[in-house]
Amino acid sequence: MKRSLLPRLSPEWAPYVFLSPFVLLFVVFGIFPLVFSFYLAFQSWEPTAGLLAMKFVGLENFAFALQDEWFWKSLKNTVWLATAAGVPQHLVAIPLAFFIHTSYKRSRNAVVGTYFLPYITSTVAIAMMFSTLFSTEYGMINQGLHALGQVPGLSWLAPAQPIDWLNHAENVKPAISLVVFWRYLGFNTVLYLAALQTIPEDIYEAATMDGAGRWQQFWFITLPSLKPMIYFGVMLSVIGGLQLFEEPFILTGGRGGTDQAGMTTAMYMYRTAFEFNDFGTASALSWLLFVFVALLTWLTNQAFKDRHAQK
Amino acid sequence: MLFNAARTAGKILSLAVLLISASLAQAQIQTLSVTAYPALDEIIKAAIPQWKKTHPNVEIKLVSRAFEDHHTAMTTALSTSSNLPDVMALEFAYVGRFGAGGGLEDLSQSPYRIKDTQMRFVPFAFKQATLSTGAVVAAPTDIGPGTLLYRTDLLKKAGVSETELTQSWDSFVASGVKIKATTGAYLMAHARDIKDILIRSNVKPGDGLYFDAAGKVMVDSPRFVRAFELARKVRQQQLDGKISGWSTAWSQGFKNGNIATQMSGAWLAGQMASWIAPTTKGLWRASQLPEKAWGAWGGTFYAIPKAAKNKALAWEFIQFMTLNRDAQLGAFKVQDAFPALLEAHTDPFYDQPIEFLGGQKARLLWREAALKINAIDVNKLDPIADEIVNTELDKVLDQGKDIPKALADAKALLERRARR
After folding, report:
1. Is there a single domain that holds both residue B92 and residue B187?
2. Tens digits of per-residue pLDDT, A24-51?
3. Which end of chain A is more exposed for a tag (fewer CB within 10 A), N or C?
4. ipTM of the assembly?
């Protein structure tokens, strides 16, 4: 019998060896940054002076962040954007998924693919495209509104002046929300479509025989069956929405727009570190954001659990 | 026979000598690592053949990243003292910040002794690299003397002369009103632009932009009040397009003649001609900034990190790039990098008309400006102060916030940061 040149891997060690690539990467890119940022949150550090320049300051960074009006402003912006972009995502995705599920048979994959496309497109490309669309004088959105205004009966749609989407504090947030909504709608639709496919057909058949209409079927069968997926989708939206960074960052040129109206907490964190050179406060901000995300996740969890218990 | 053998042995010997010397030469080849960003990377690449003539055994390993990425990478490299290059290119805004961190060599010390050649540099650029401690942390290579570019066709239509436009800031704004009324064009892209230059004018020597020599916050000083008032006036009279620099609307505005003037570094004329608005060739002119405000936009420096491996060689390279008249002029001619080296300020090139500016000999203006600009002391809180002041200006312009209140709020915010 031919013997292998390599020593035999004992079954005891095999799982560890096979796991090691992931564990190693996770430790380097997952655990280490986590621990390091926690450590940094208690330090004052001028990064360009080297690692030895760190000074322990206790909770000063947290105290500063909690009294920092920009932190609260950024948090407000974040919640605003997460809500304005997140809630419609689900309100539209569920009926849309139901519509696609019931109306398309052969072309379903193509339709779903189209809705899913924004999700897999590079954020940078999307944000750049939208900054062109949102342009005040030359953007297609304003031109479209203007054209709509020319249609008899629709003149109320056209604003007197072209809307300054990205440079006017009041318009920045709706503009960003629109992009985020558009981007994640397809993702949620796919989630709900997958859930719809698991609902047994016979329930609908039975309902039809009992004389339930399409609307009643949706309300009394589809929606309750979707609840676990709604929980999952809402959870993802909450977490993702609170960590929103790329879209506002690129749409507002990295500065958060006029009066920082589009500056999310994640953006403020990034700017504190890399623009204002304050890694300690930035780390403290990231942990405060973590606590906030954890809290809201827990609340979401509670909200869904309670209703479940009532049933 | 014997002769032949001797000849063969001789051949072998000479071959061996050749091989040994070649391998020795191979061993002596040194690598100098340089990090930069566009278009400085092109300038360095173009200078390498010349450098090779005097340093045949030194390979230049040039790593170029996008502007922001470069400075982020250098921050990271300095913070961990690893992967540092021998020569680091830095944009003006980062010189003070990195210098204050203490990660850069003090070039005023031996063996560099940059002060021996101080007189050869444009004074303000040299001062920009000098910290309050007296340490010189970088060597300037190019500068951005401020200029006002304006559309001569729009001015003519509005009946505004260059003198009228640039005599004072008030006449500048008044000209804007005429231009808007007759041509519909905005005086400037964003009202913030006028604030930016005004807070940089008449800064006392030793003072910074936002802090005085003693570290006191100055954002409620008359300099800021006037800057904010003029910016508000511009906005109230609808003389600005609320267009941020480098956006699509900005370049479109130049192309379509919607924006009548732009204040910037001299390099903007080159960028306009090459890609921003090449079709407007001949319509633009350059002048000094209104009310003889002398200001600079950007500027590039070379520094040596303390943890660099080849410091002596790095210094030779920096001298080669900054004190070499040919290299400096070459960079000016090809990449519009205005020389920081005074010797490179005399060349027939300066007298040549610039086609994009309708044949104007604008380089003479910029050369004059370069000598009149005052260096402003850099503070590590400048980036945050910038943000604070801009945010308060937004409130004044968009929400009608009272100027004294806005500046007082800015002061309180900045003082809170400065106390830490």
Report:
1. no
2. 999 999 999 999 999 999 999 988 888 8
3. N
4. 0.85
User: pLDDT digit string (tens) for B322-366?
Assistant: 999 999 999 999 999 999 999 999 999 999 999 999 999 999 999
Q: In this structure, what token pair is assigned to residue B28?
A: 């002596």
B130 and B152 inside one domain: no
Secondary structure (DSSP) of A194-256:
HHHHTS-HHHHHHHHHTT--HHHHIIIIIHHHHHHHHHHHHHHHHHHHHT--HHHHHHTTTTT
Do B131 and B150 share a domain, yes or no? no
Query: Using one digit for the tens of pLDDT, what is the confidence trace for B38-97?
Result: 989 999 999 999 999 999 999 999 999 999 999 999 999 998 888 999 999 999 989 988
**Selected residue of B244, B250, B381, B415 to mutate for chain A interface (largest A Cβ count, 10 A):** B244
Same-domain pairing of B157 and B119: no
Q: Which residue ranges form the domains of chain A, and what is each CATH number?
A: 62-138+164-310 (1.10.3720.10)
Reported pTM: 0.86
Q: Is A276 on the interface with B (CB under 8 A)?
A: yes
Q: Which of B245, B297, B298, B252 has the alpha carbon at shortest distance from B276?
A: B252
Domain of B381? Answer: 146-295+355-418
Beta-sheet pairing, B87-91 with B296-303: antiparallel
- Asked whether residue B196 falls in the same domain as residue B326, the answer is no
Q: Which residues of B touch A271 (CB under 8 A)?
A: 387
Q: Looking at the domain assignment, is residue B21 inside a domain? A: no
How much of chain B, in percent, has pLDDT values that exceed 70? 94
B13 domain residue, yes or no: no
Distances (CA, A) of B251 to B146, B231, B271, B281: 19, 22, 11, 14
Asked whether the beta carbons of residue A276 and residue B248 sit closer than 8 angstroms, the reply is: no
Residues in chain A with CB shorter than 8 Å from the CB of B253 are 137
CATH number for the domain that contains residue B246 = 3.40.190.10
Task: Name the residue facing B101 among A48, A164, A275 (closest C-beta).
Answer: A48
Q: Which two tokens stand for residue B155?
A: 């001015």
Instruction: Please check whether residue A49 touches B, CB under 8 A.
Output: yes
| B235 and B380 belong to one structural domain | yes
Interface of A with B in 143-172 (CB under 8 A): 164, 167-169
